Amino acid sequence: MKNTVTTFKSAKESNEKLSMLTAYDYSTAKLMDEAGINGILVGDSLGNVVLGYEDTLSVTMEDMIHHGRAVARGAKNSLVVVDMPFMSYQTSVYDAVKNAGRLMKEGRAGAVKLEGGKEVSEAINAITNAGIPVMAHLGLTPQSINAFGGFKVQGKSEEAAKKLINDAKAVEEAGAFALVLECVPEKLAKLITESINIPTIGIGAGKYCDGQILVYQDMLGMFSDFTPKFVKKYADIGSVMKEAFKEYNDEINKGVFPSGEHTYKIDDEVIEKLY
Ligand SMILES: Nc1nc(=O)c2c([nH]1)NC[C@@H]1CN(c3ccc(C(=O)N[C@@H](CCC(=O)O)C(=O)O)cc3)CN21
Ligand SMILES: CC(C)C(=O)C(=O)O
Ligand SMILES: [Mg+2]
């Protein structure tokens, strides 16, 4: 069944859980779509897992458009959400709407996601008013790594927790259709989930969120630069890949690959004339 912003909103009302994963290319998105994943996020985490940067700050609009289009072609039923990269929405409401529009038109997104609370509520409102669904993102917002001083759990003090609750209400009020909660204590994520009428999608935010999301290379054991506590490995594809690459390398060196079954033939009469 086709997932839309409406599906996400009604899932919360009917207490159905939402599943999301990140993807950055056509073939991975297609597998997730066929597996029945509700939403696919073209995350700016592509800066880490695809491009090899240490953080997400260098990711560009062109990167997001390029990967958004690829994912959109593979996702028939999953809702495709594309991350707005660092500095594509913080500079002005005009820039925010303009760049959200590019992610829809050129990136073929079904919705966009941006990081922040009250400070971006005007942008969320303006993008929503342009007919573009917005997913909000609170807690550990990686584009603010330099302001946080590192990747840390958010909202642990009373003051920080209150700010998160108020920000969640602010993004809902501004028109966001869903909210990602990243690295937030489980009980606070539960309180936030109960305090708003839009679905919360957790990553390191516990089981009471309305949905869950993980970076796919993390859950498949394909990424090892860092492994947050919230990651569960559903398969060790990284090891499987490395073993296959080694075997391929070995077989080439030994002359085992390619053998007859992977080779094209020509009539002997033809080839003899060429010698
Ligand atoms: N591969 C990948 N997975 C992600 O989940 C992810 C990205 N990349 N890139 C963008 C952000 C960065 N993220 C991160 C990165 C590190 C931690 C981390 O090391 N967290 C500590 C918290 C320690 C604490 O405060 O108690 C941890 O041990 O989980 C968390 C989220 C989440 N996002
Ligand atoms: C971790 C998720 C929520 C994200 O924003 C990303 O992948 O960029
Ligand atoms: Mg992101």
Automatic annotation (TrEMBL):
Q: Cofactor(s) for this protein?
A: Mg(2+)
| GO molecular function annotations of the record | 3-methyl-2-oxobutanoate hydroxymethyltransferase activity; magnesium ion binding; methyltransferase activity
Q: What is its main location?
A: cytoplasm
Q: What is this protein called?
A: 3-methyl-2-oxobutanoate hydroxymethyltransferase
Q: In which pathway does it act?
A: Cofactor biosynthesis; (R)-pantothenate biosynthesis; (R)-pantoate from 3-methyl-2-oxobutanoate: step 1/2
**Where is Mg(2+) bound in this sequence?**
D44, D83, E115
* Cited HAMAP family: PanB
Q: How does it assemble?
A: Homodecamer; pentamer of dimers.
Please tell me the species this chain comes from.
Answer: Anaerofustis stercorihominis DSM 17244
Q: Name one GO biological process term.
A: pantothenate biosynthetic process
List UniProt keywords, sorted A-Z: Cytoplasm, Magnesium, Metal-binding, Pantothenate biosynthesis, Transferase
- Which Pfam families does its entry note? Pantoate_transf
Catalysed reaction(s)?
(6R)-5,10-methylene-5,6,7,8-tetrahydrofolate + 3-methyl-2-oxobutanoate + H2O = 2-dehydropantoate + (6S)-5,6,7,8-tetrahydrofolate
Q: What is the lineage of its organism?
A: Bacteria, Bacillati, Bacillota, Clostridia, Eubacteriales
Q: What this chain does, per the record?
A: Catalyzes the reversible reaction in which hydroxymethyl group from 5,10-methylenetetrahydrofolate is transferred onto alpha-ketoisovalerate to form ketopantoate.
The domain of life is Bacteria
The note on the cofactor says: Binds 1 Mg(2+) ion per subunit.
Q: Which InterPro entries match?
A: Pantoate_hydroxy_MeTrfase (IPR003700), Pyrv/PenolPyrv_kinase-like_dom (IPR015813), Pyrv_kinase-like_dom_sf (IPR040442)
The subcellular location is:
Cytoplasm
**Residues at which 3-methyl-2-oxobutanoate binds:** D44, S45, D83, K113
**List of catalytic residues:** E182
Any idea of its EC number?
Answer: 2.1.2.11
